[in-house]
Amino acid sequence: MPTVRLDKVTLSFGLKPLLDDADLQIRRAERVCLLGRNGEGKSSLLQLITRQIAPDSGEVWVRPGARVASLAQEVSPASEASVRDVVMGGIGPGAATHDDWQAELQVDQIISRLQLDGDAAISALSGGWRRRVMLGRALVAKPDLLLLDEPTNHLDIETITWLEDMMLDFDGALLFISHDRAFVRRLATRIVELDRGQLRQWPGSYDDYVLQKRAALEVEAKHAALFDKKLAQEEVWIRQGVEARRTRNEGRVRALKQLRIQRGERRERIGQVEIRAQDAAPSGKLVFEAVHVTHTFGASPVIADFSARIQRGDRIGIIGPNGCGKSTVIKLLVGELEPTSGEIRRGTNLASAYFDQQREQLDPAASIMDNVTGGSGDTVIIDGQARHVSGYLRDFLFPPERLHAPVSMLSVG
């Protein structure tokens, strides 16, 4: 018996359905990876299973008595709740009482395995540590069905390895969304892809999926080209002279009308994002230099006596456990934070761009266009040239009709 089943499920937000008569079954001990482009509806599918939203039609069935737990894509918002209380909340109101010693034991075990401080406030934690807390909340109930939405986001390498090992030993059903190819390769027993409203099953490993998908897209492109060629030929025929129209075959006319309908209903595959770093004026050889930099939060230094020189052309990765100060280093370098002591020198003609993990630079209430232009009009300057924001955002696969939608309406991707 499957743990979860979707039968002919349809779900729409806007003109095109996210799910169009979609079917899916997941059984115990399966580890199913759900793939798909940003905005295709992957997170919405998980929300259907957890009953956060309802389908427009069809049925979402979960085996009676099955415990379902989920890890959302977003890190929990800052609050004054303690780590212990947040993790305990994953057991559910029926068991989450401090008089239940079994619940207490489960919480203590999870807190220990994730190396969490049960007394710490969520608001005091980095994004990675908050992610660990929410992961603990999902695991503490020992679910029969575990839903993970981009579980490796914000996690350090050691915790990702621990999570992989734990999921390999997990004996329930697992449905997870991830764009971390190494994570998918190690865990997935089956790939399911959400593509233009359809759930397509791809048996085998991730590498098998890549090969099969490439072949399937080539076949799809050939069929589409043949269809379009036939349609074009029939359109030429129907536009022939008056004499030809008098003798035209009405069956052929009806067939042409049907071809037009089919072409209009075809959902094209979205193109590729075109991302290119803007060329700023050449900077000096020195980009950043940190000299005996220390930065403290409270009484404890997060960065202590840090010195480094970064030069033009360097490509540097900063690694370390969650909460050790990686984001703090970047914020110090770009000037978002000032060091408690020490000095940071920045090169001449320096144009820096900072993409933060919490996307704090975005205003959720403002439109996509205003977030990109800063509300300063309808153009952006790219490589010293003015460019209309509509064309620029089309490179990132935003159609013109969505430019005025608020950022809050978008998927996280």
Over all CA atoms, what is the radius of gyration?
Answer: 26 Å
The poorly predicted ranges are none
- Average pLDDT figure: 84
SSE order, as H and E? EEEHEEHHHEHEHEEHHHEEHEHEEH
Number of strands: 14
How large a portion of the residues is in β-strands, by DSSP E?
A: 15-25%
Distance between the termini: 34 Å
Task: Return the structural class.
Answer: alpha/beta
Largest sheet: 6 strands, mixed
Number of DSSP helical runs: 12
Shape: globular
Q: Report helical residue fraction.
A: 25-40%
In oligomeric terms, what are we looking at? single chain
Written description of the protein model:
- By secondary structure, the chain is α/β, with parallel strands linked by helices.
- The protein is 33% helix and 23% strand.
- The strands form four sheets. Strands 5-6-7-3-8-9 form a six-stranded mixed beta sheet, sandwiched between helices. A three-stranded antiparallel beta sheet has the order 2-1-4, with helices on one face. A three-stranded antiparallel beta sheet has the order 11-10-12, covered by helices on one side.
- The radius of gyration is 26 Å and the shape is globular.
- It starts with a strand and ends in a 19-residue tail after the last helix.
